[in-house]
């Protein structure tokens, strides 16, 4: 397709038609010019291709969805901290898209987990933008290597379901730049997604779909994005304004309503046809890319069994062991004497393996932990099972609660160990609404607490898409976080419980003791159609660690059946260029092969601006045999040390000291080394009559001069010259005093102040 030639032949009416979907899942076609339609489909943890009802032509949810492989949701895959796995998962989904004639899969979703109550957290990656960006870029590269596009979403600041189609996210620019934008920016620069999906919500009063600053100035000019921007489904309020702002494609179609408005606006001069042409060209570029990778429909089928095995393998790599005391795990296998094990909880029989809403995958292959354990009874030994509580609801009637508890106790009487499969029912978290609390169904807590009275080791396996409160955590022997691990989660959990697989997942989100501890607590989900992001930069561990606040389990936490030791930290910094290369030795000091996630945090000690106590700037997943060691290397560019300066509209590195931290989690830092960087911005005050004396006393270029210049005036403040602590007193008392204030308290003249100001300007180079 020659896009320039095609553009010349298109009529205004055809252009207006091309910038909206033909139906729910397909772009428009212009048969006269040989422009075909291409298909997009929901994801991102599997292929949710819709089968149309007979004669429906894919319209608005009619018909079912194809049987496909359900891979782990993002809440699970993020815990893998594994770029290679994410790329492989992307490649696998890309192959399925090819086989099903799907050209763009809608994902990944990288909105930050601001609150644990967001109903869609299960399909978002992390509370940390670095993790979200790195893993999303790997997934995108995997999918697109197969000639299939992705649609990174939801751009931007879509961190709740409450009023998501109308509410305004009120966020300051620095917070947007440092927390809510970087995952998208990383994806652009490391993976170049074919499409961006803008979010429903407003940002500071303006719809994302109508924001020129967001869609053009930031995305295209600042980041250099060249692809297509589409709307979330029905996210368009003013289509004409959206085209002018940089929204290329409205999805789905709107039965010609906006088409007519576009034509009218162009004819009346309210919309430049050149703006419409930009949108049309981006649509045609997407179609051209899609055609290049497209294969003959029906010429290829994906290997469902092979992909299922991959789903199992991915799930194994994502499971997080949160706690393991008293050798509770692994359960003993059938070597010599087997342990008597009881599974409690309907999740053992009916695992919750994905979330609800637009990402829900239709799959016919679900093996529960109970089925897998029975299948391998010869290897692992028989397990007893009792329902204990339902997987799909809470139970509130007292007699029904007692019945379930009695059943669980009877089944557990002869057990050596009890494994409780707990979690959140489907109705508790889904796209479309937020959770009301962080609690498990109360019956689950009651069953666990009752089983603890039997004086046996109790192990809890969790199936949930976001953090839950665990009032029994200190008393149970082990906790395994399985998240929503896809169709292979039953087998993966059994493998971990019996030690056939060494758990290697790490938390990509903090788990607080209770919801009230979360920094967004007082401002979620908002009021009067607005949500105030008052916590600013302090999201997740950035808040908990800066406040030195205990959490149930910290960001980055996860334990293994083996142990890892870090040593020989070396940091080679380039102060002039504000970069560093970090190396650290990692050794498996245990007796079992395992994977570890080495985490690198950077702490800004310059005091130049308010920043979190530290921020993740590097991670590597490494697989080591027992006794094996390996040197891990990190390269930190200047961005790793930068903050966003809203006055200068740029990323700046403060001059001064930074600390490189290596840890097992954000709260388990084991090695540190301090470095000094020249920075791109120095702690130099702006010199005028209003400059504060404290600023001058803290600046190396001005402190010696200002002490001498004002020493004869400071007796008015009760500071006697020559006192041993006079310099400290001066700094404390005069810190917030403007230079001009000495006229009132010290008797200095305007002429003397002018001379001091002139000298100070020379010292700092502000002449």
TrEMBL record:
Organism per entry: Eubacterium ruminantium
Record-annotated Fibronectin type III-like domain positions: 596-666
Family: Belongs to the glycosyl hydrolase 3 family.
Pfam family name, one: Fn3-like
PANTHER family found in the cross-reference section: BETA-GLUCOSIDASE
Keyword Hydrolase among record annotations: yes
Hydrolase keyword on record: yes
SUPFAM superfamilies xrefs: (Trans)glycosidases, Beta-D-glucan exohydrolase, C-terminal domain
Protein name per the record: Beta-glucosidase
PROSITE patterns in UniProt: GLYCOSYL_HYDROL_F3 (PS00775)
GO biological process per UniProt: carbohydrate metabolic process
GO molecular function annotations of the record: beta-glucosidase activity
Keywords per UniProt: Carbohydrate metabolism, Glycosidase, Hydrolase
């Amino acid at each position: 397709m020659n896009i320039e030639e095609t553009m010349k032949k298109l009529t205004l009416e055809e252009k207006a038609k091309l910038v909206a979907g033909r139906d729910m899942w397909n772009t428009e076609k212009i048969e006269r010019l040989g422009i075909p339609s291409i298909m997009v489909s929901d994801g991102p943890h599997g292929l949710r291709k819709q089968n149309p009802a007979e004669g429906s032509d894919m319209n608005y949810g009619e018909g079912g969805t194809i049987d496909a492989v359900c891979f782990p949701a993002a809440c699970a895959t993020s815990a893998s901290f594994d770029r290679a796995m994410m790329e492989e998962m992307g490649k696998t989904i890309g192959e399925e898209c090819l086989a099903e004639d799907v050209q763009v899969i809608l994902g990944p979703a990288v909105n930050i987990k601001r609150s644990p109550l967001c109903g869609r957290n299960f399909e978002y990656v992390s509370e940390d933008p670095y993790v979200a960006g790195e893993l999303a870029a790997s997934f995108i590269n995997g999918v697109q290597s197969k000639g299939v596009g992705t649609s990174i979403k939801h751009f931007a600041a879509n961190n709740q379901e409450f009023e998501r189609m109308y509410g305004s996210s009120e966020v300051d620019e620095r917070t947007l730049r440092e927390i809510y934008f970087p995952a998208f920016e990383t994806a652009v620069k490391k993976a170049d997604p074919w499409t961006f999906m803008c979010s429903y919500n407003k940002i500071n009063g303006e719809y994302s779909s109508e924001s020129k600053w967001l869609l053009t100035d930031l995305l295209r000019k600042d980041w250099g994005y060249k692809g297509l921007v589409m709307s979330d489904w029905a996210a368009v309020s003013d289509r004409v304004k959206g085209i002018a702002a940089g929204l290329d494609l409205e999805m789905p179609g709107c039965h010609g309503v906006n088409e007519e408005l576009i034509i009218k606006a162009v004819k009346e001069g309210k919309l430049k046809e050149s703006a419409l042409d930009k949108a049309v060209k981006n649509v045609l570029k997407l179609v051209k890319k899609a055609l290049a990778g497209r294969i003959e429909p029906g010429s290829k089928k994906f290997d469902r069994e092979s992909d299922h095995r991959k789903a199992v393998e991915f799930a194994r790599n994502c499971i997080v062991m949160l706690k393991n005391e008293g050798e509770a795990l692994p359960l003993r296998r059938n070597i010599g004497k087997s342990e008597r094990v009881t599974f409690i909880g309907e999740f053992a029989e009916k695992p919750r393996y994905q979330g609800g809403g637009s990402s829900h995958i239709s799959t016919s292959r679900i093996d529960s932990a109970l089925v897998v354990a029975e299948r391998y009874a010869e290897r692992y030994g028989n397990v007893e099972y009792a329902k204990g509580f339902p997987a799909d609801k809470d139970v509130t009637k007292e007699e029904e609660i007692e019945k379930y508890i009695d059943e669980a106790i009877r089944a557990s009487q002869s057990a050596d160990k009890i494994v409780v499969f707990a979690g959140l029912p489907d109705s508790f978290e889904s796209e479309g609404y937020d959770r009301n609390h962080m609690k498990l169904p109360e019956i689950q807590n009651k069953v666990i607490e009752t089983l603890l009275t039997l004086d046996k080791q109790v192990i809890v396996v969790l199936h949930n898409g976001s953090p839950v409160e665990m009032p029994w955590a200190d008393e149970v022997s082990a906790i395994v976080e399985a998240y929503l691990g896809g169709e292979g989660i039953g087998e993966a959990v059994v493998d971990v419980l019996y030690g056939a697989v060494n758990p290697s997942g790490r938390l990509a989100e903090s788990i607080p003791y209770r919801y009230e501890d979360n920094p967004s607590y007082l401002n979620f989900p908002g009021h009067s159609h607005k949500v105030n992001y008052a916590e600013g930069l302090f999201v997740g561990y950035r808040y908990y660690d800066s406040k030195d606040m205990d959490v149930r389990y910290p960001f980055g936490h996860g334990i293994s059946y083996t142990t890892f030791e870090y040593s020989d930290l070396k940091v080679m910094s380039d102060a002039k260029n504000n970069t560093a290369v970090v190396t650290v030795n990692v050794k498996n000091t245990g007796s079992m092969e395992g994977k570890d996630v080495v985490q690198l945090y950077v702490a800004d000690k310059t005091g130049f601006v308010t920043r979190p106590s530290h921020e993740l700037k590097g991670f590597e997943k490494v697989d080591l045999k027992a006794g094996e060691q390996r040197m891990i290397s990190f390269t930190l560019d200047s961005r790793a040390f930068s903050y966003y300066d809203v006055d200068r509209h740029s990323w700046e590195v403060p001059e001064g000291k930074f600390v490189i931290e290596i840890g097992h989690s954000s709260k388990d830092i084991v090695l540190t080394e301090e470095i000094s960087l020249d920075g791109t911005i120095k702690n130099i005050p702006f010199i005028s009559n209003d400059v504060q004396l404290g600023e001058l006393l803290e600046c190396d270029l001005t402190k010696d001069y200002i002490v001498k210049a004002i020493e004869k005036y400071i007796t008015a403040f009760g500071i006697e010259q020559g006192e041993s602590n006079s310099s400290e007193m001066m700094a404390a008392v005069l810190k917030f005093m403007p230079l001009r204030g000495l006229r009132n308290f010290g008797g200095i003249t305007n002429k003397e102040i002018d001379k001091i100001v002139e000298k100070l300007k020379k010292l700092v180079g502000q002449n």
